[in-house]
Automatic annotation (TrEMBL), chains A, B:
This is N-acetylmannosamine kinase. The keyword Kinase applies. PANTHER family: N-ACETYLMANNOSAMINE KINASE, ROK (REPRESSOR, ORF, KINASE) FAMILY. Keywords: Kinase, Transferase. Its EC number is 2.7.1.60. Gene3D superfamilies: 3.30.420.40. GO terms for molecular function: N-acylmannosamine kinase activity. Coiled coil: none annotated. It comes from Microbacterium trichothecenolyticum. Transmembrane segments: none annotated. It comes from the Bacteria. The keyword Flavoprotein does not apply. Belongs to the ROK (NagC/XylR) family.
Length: 317, 317
């Protein structure tokens, strides 16, 4: 059994995956704030899989953790996980001795890309030679999977398409540049510019745009343009077979996809070359509630073959 | 011995590469126009390596051809090689029976990427884990090499970064979109907008910009912005270790590089994230006259292991 955790800003999604790749147990717990509490969340989530989801912890071979931050390549060290209150944390070192099994840590979007690839293939579809998972959340980033393997890049910034500028006169991005894809299409940037308090600001924007609000229409148009730009970047640079969209903003479902399809159709109309790419046919939506990131984290965990000395091991103890 | 040919719009560059990867012979001949003449050029170039460059043709094991067009994946078929007057040509089928050795065909920029990778490594530098070769010629396109292997993508459009739009109000691109990187930085687009007859229009533009001509300054600024945008796209999407610039426009050398470095410095100044990428340190210029494309074509040829029946074989005959 392989455990995978998706440590999000508010909740942590935990799954146990059996030898056939099927999800044998799943639950969610709140995520703690700061390095110690995040490490404790990992331990609590694994324990809860045993006590509440009926997973036999003695059969667990590895734990993989997806986390919204930069991971130092080849280590279990997390840096700049600002949504978790973590500036720096050697998460693998903090929890592996307690868990008694190898622990691998990966950026959450990269983990979700692996998970989305596994879910796509499991759905009976032929395995794509290459796939990009484009995460539309507070920020915008992608993970690229080729022949089932995650493309990690030279320094951990592969898939950071959110900070490609597509308009020198566009809105200022939190990164400091103008007109980044994330400044147009990031849930955080849209919420900030909408500036009305709401649990679901992007949904508010869509509702207000439907009601004719001009600033909401502008924001909604920018979201579609940003997502379409990210899709074009991924296909024109890496030439992935398919682009799977996921993340919180995709809860808008068809309302979002209709706008994005219209943007892609407009560039196909303007350009025979773009038309030849059949972009609209290469975009898919991750089904809502899919455990892509936690499943992908379990797959990342299974990649590790390091052994760890156990002290008070929670899993094998 | 492996033969590699770079079939360009006016000249064809031919090399013979020995078992150590060293260039044992090199020459250039004019390229013919149209399918039959292009196939004949390939045969003539191989023959000339024997008669004029002292290559023992009986030792040739393969021929690889780089050509400026789309190659149907997994075949030797060229389509849309507009600069050669070729709409469609099964080049491998046309020349392999005459050559009597396996023939592989690849897009010229992708071949040059493999060659640039080999030249970089041969220069004594550690082999980069991943590299992009960004070709600045009439058009703009890149080839990506990871762990020494060319990234071909799903449908042959990997590296087509020239048609990513970076300004919705930018100049119209020949592809039909607005503000493509190629519309700013392609030698063809710049020559068209400069609209003064010249053998080296981009050099003219630099000279006129130095002399204070406002439209030349605008074109020159656009070139640097387009090249910098392509570098950002390659690093933020694929996270290559290094980006090697080559192609006709790079004959401008330091004059071009100074402008590009200033553009990269401006985004690093604006954005701590961009600063953390150290883009300027990751850009290299291919030395002028480097036989990257022909050398890469020889490497592509060596990838093939198909056997071909010989009839009147030129090489082994």
């Amino acid at each position: 059994m392989r455990v995978g955790l998706d440590v999000g800003g508010t909740k942590t999604d935990a799954v146990a995956v059996d030898a056939d790749g099927e999800i044998a147990g799943r639950l969610r717990i709140p995520t703690g704030w700061g390095p110690d509490a995040v490490a404790q969340t990992v331990l609590d989530a694994v324990r809860a899989l045993g006590s509440e989801a009926g997973v036999d912890l003695s059969t667990v071979q590895s734990v993989g953790v997806g986390i919204p931050g930069q991971i130092e390549p080849g280590t279990g060290r997390v840096v700049h996980a600002v949504n978790l209150g973590v500036d720096e944390l050697d998460l693998a070192a903090a929890v592996a001795p307690r868990l008694g099994v190898p622990v691998q840590v990966e950026n959450d979007v990269k983990a979700a890309a692996l998970g989305a690839h596994a879910l796509h293939t499991r759905g009976g579809a032929p395995a794509p030679g290459s796939m990009a998972y484009l995460n539309l959340g507070t920020g915008i980033a992608a993970g690229i999977v080729s022949d089932g393997v995650l493309w990690r890049g030279a320094r951990g910034t592969a898939g950071e398409v959110g900070h490609i500028s597509v308009d020198p006169n566009g809105p200022l991005c939190r990164c400091g540049q103008r007109g980044c894809i994330e400044a147009f299409a990031g849930g955080g940037a849209i919420a900030e510019r909408w500036a009305k308090r709401s649990a679901l600001p992007v949904r508010d924007v869509f509702d207000a745009a439907d009601a004719g609000d001009p600033s909401a229409r502008q924001l909604r148009g920018g979201l579609a343009r940003g997502v379409a730009a990210a899709i074009r970047v991924l296909v024109l640079t890496v030439d992935v077979d398919i682009v799977v969209l996921g993340g919180g903003v995709t809860a808008l479902g068809d309302r979002l996809m209709t706008d994005v399809a219209a943007e892609l159709a407009a560039s196909a109309e303007a350009s025979p070359f773009m038309r030849s790419l059949h972009l609209a046919d290469r975009v898919e939506l991750l089904p809502p509630g899919s455990p892509a990131a936690a499943l992908g984290a379990a797959l990342v965990g299974a990649e590790g073959d390091a052994t760890h000395d156990a002290e008070e091991a929670l899993v094998h103890g």
